[in-house]
Amino acid sequence: MDSHPALLDHLVLATPDLAATVADFTRRTGVAPAPGGVHVGRGTRNFLVSLGGTGYLEIVGPDPEQATPDGPRPFGVDGITAPHIVTWAIRPPDLDAAVAAARARGYDPGPVRPMSRRRPDGSLLSWRLTDGDSAHPSGLVPFLIDWGDTAHPSAGLPVTRLLSLTATAPDPDEIRPLLAALGTGLPLSAGPVGFSCTVDSARGPVELR
């Protein structure tokens, strides 16, 4: 079975301390995530590592070099006390068509809006995505993303291959139809809301939650 859910683009691991989490990931896997860039005005920055193929892991946290933003930082970074996977993104072939199809199937992934950030080399990375503010509160239902003509962020990243991705939810049967409406899936079992991701490394399999 393919370890990558259909249309997987990336997993989001949010942390209150970006430097510490990147150092811990490097220690556990022997792979140092690459600097991604700064989300100007949003108070965050990220580091990236490939999961194999075009899937990747985004480690995102507060950017100490930015002023405190006017609103909350993305992905609930302001309210977490420990690093954990908070949500994921899928990349359909046609973002607008996928949004329309999901709505026709009874799930609204939210409005589509543009975003951008600068890579460390100064080049501009631009994309469109569905608004996370209206996403399912569990984080288990992915947001949708379209990188357009921009080079995909996974290109050239260090690799820790994804071995498995599963999740738990108090009511898995509530989540499954929403995933199906988006044309994807995720192995779900009953339990507290959360993800479990295992990646391969030279130091053996490493579990992230």
Radius of gyration in whole Å, from Cα? 16 Å
Task: Indicate the proportion of strand residues.
Answer: 25-35%
What average pLDDT do the residues reach? 94
Number of helices: 3
Poorly predicted parts: none
In total, the number of strands is: 12
* Biggest sheet statistics: 8 strands, mixed
Helix content: 10-25%
- Which sequence of strands runs across the widest sheet? 2-3-4-1-5-8-7-6
Shape: globular
Protein name: Glyoxalase-like domain-containing protein
Domain Glyoxalase-like: 8-182
Pfam families: Glyoxalase_3
Task: Describe the protein's architecture and organization.
The protein is of the alpha+beta class. Helix content is 15%, strand content 34%. It contains three helices and twelve strands, in the order E-H-E-E-E-E-H-E-E-E-E-H-E-E-E. The chain has an eight-stranded mixed beta sheet with strand order 2-3-4-1-5-8-7-6. The protein has a four-stranded mixed beta sheet with strand order 10-9-11-12, with helices on one face. The longest helix is centred in the N-terminal third of the chain and has 12 residues, at 18-29.
What is shown here, in short?
It contains 3 helices and 12 strands, in the order βαββββαββββαβββ.
Identify the notable features of this structure and list them briefly.
209 residues, 12 strands, 3 helices, alpha+beta, Glyas_Bleomycin-R_OHBP_Dase, 8-stranded mixed sheet, single chain, 4-stranded mixed sheet
Summarize the helices and strands and which ones pair or pack.
Layout: E1 8-14, H1 18-29, E2 34-39, E3 44-50, E4 56-62, E5 84-90, H2 95-104, E6 112-118, E7 124-130, E8 143-146, E9 162-169, H3 172-181, E10 188-190, E11 194-199, E12 206-208
Parallel strand pairs: 1-4, 5-8, 9-10
Antiparallel strand pairs: 1-5, 2-3, 3-4, 6-7, 7-8, 9-11, 11-12
